Amino acid sequence: MSELSSPEAIAFRRHFHAHPELSLQEFETVAFIESKLRERSFDEIRTGIGKTGILATLRGGKEGPTTLLRADMDALPVQELGTAEYRSQRDGVMHACGHDGHMAILLTAARALALRRDEVRGTLVFCFQPGEEGHGGNRLMIADGALENPHVDRVFALHLYTGLEAGKIGIRDGPFFAASDQIFVTLEGRGGHGAMPQLSVDPIVGAAQFITMLQTLVSRETPPKEPAVVTIGKIVAGTTHNVIPDRAELVGTVRTLDETIRRSMPERLERMLHGISSAMRLQHKLDYEWGYPAVVNDKATNDVVRAIARACAGEENVVDPHDVVMWAEDMAYMQEVRPGAYFLLGARGRERGTEPQHSARYDIDESALELGVRMMTELALR
């Protein structure tokens, strides 16, 4: 067991897991992190960055770049169904995505590195970020100066992933996590009696046609080697079994890796809606909400991660993930303006870490934490 971490990282992770807070409400979480940082000597600790974010700066004893290491802090509105002794103590709120582990890894690494300042190359900025789950906290932190004073040269982040076994590290050059946009569609018809459909204009049938046709955006309009996902996750229409409603509302997500394909999606969706509406006598409205861009790894920065991963985990445990991960991640904003690398840290074990991200029974194999601390520490020292 490394002197760096495991007991401390596990204790931190279990504390965070038991006390989750939603996006941009991470006040107790930040207070805990700040208290643990102030037990060590940092050059500066800034709070209230991006509303509830915290930055700790450490100037090393050797020449080198300014490196930002980031962990996200927010939990999800999920009622935990797990039975571990460290399960969530807050009804309806849960760390179901691994952010508790991310914070534990970075906090442990920061505290260890503060004791090894003379070995640090350049300047380190430890970034604890709020609001990753759909609130763009990364962008809020950039707006509040997270990449300046000191000027950050490169950025790193990791994500625990139960799709990989504990002990493995997933690295991929170029686009890694998907851009995530939302679509809001309204179809207006004319309501009436379900037994006399000829006197109505049925928006539900139009919605069904639209959902079916949507699948061709991927299967027939997107190159087979370019991953894309179009999903309708919500439909609101109707009140009872024998009434045709006036309106159907649909909400969905569009996930893409290629920016050209992403930018083409509003026109393609509008074309489909226009055709369906014309054919079925409906009126339609499309609102396309641009979300997080794709996470794109800089190859040179990724090579740094790859070399350290091989040293920390062994060549055989450094993999290109078999499946494209179409999650979205707001670390993309920092990686748009600074060279950056984002990698996966395996968290699946035999007993824990068997559930996917966002599951109400999500947990991790905590042996992954030590490897995460070693990775973050070596990124600072090498």
Percent range of helical residues: 25-40%
Kindly estimate the percentage of residues that lie in beta strands according to DSSP. 25-35%
The oligomeric state of the chains shown is: single chain
Low-pLDDT regions: 1-5
Strand-and-helix sequence, N→C?
HHEEEHEHEEEEEHEEEHEEHEHEH
Count of separate DSSP helical elements: 9
The tally of strands reads: 16
Major beta-sheet overview:
8 strands, mixed
The CATH homology group name of the largest domain: Zn peptidases
Please name the CATH topology of the largest domain.
Aminopeptidase
CATH architecture of the largest domain: 3-Layer(aba) Sandwich
Structural class: alpha/beta
Instruction: Tell me the overall shape.
Output: elongated
Task: Characterise this structure.
This protein is an alpha/beta fold. The protein has 2 domains: 6-177 and 294-381, Zn peptidases (Aminopeptidase), CATH 3.40.630; 179-292, Alpha-Beta Plaits (2-Layer Sandwich), CATH 3.30.70.360. It has helices at 6-18, 27-37, 99-114, 137-143, 203-219, 259-280, 299-313, 332-337, 367-381, and strands at residues 44-49, 53-59, 62-72, 121-129, 154-165, 169-170, 174-177, 179-188, 192-193, 228-237, 243-244, 247-256, 283-292, 295-297, 318-319, 340-348. It has an 8-stranded mixed beta sheet, sandwiched between helices. A 4-stranded antiparallel beta sheet has the order 10-12-8-13, covered by helices on one side. Strands 7-14 form a two-stranded antiparallel ribbon. Strand 1 and strand 2 form a beta hairpin. Mean pLDDT is 96; it is low at 1-5.
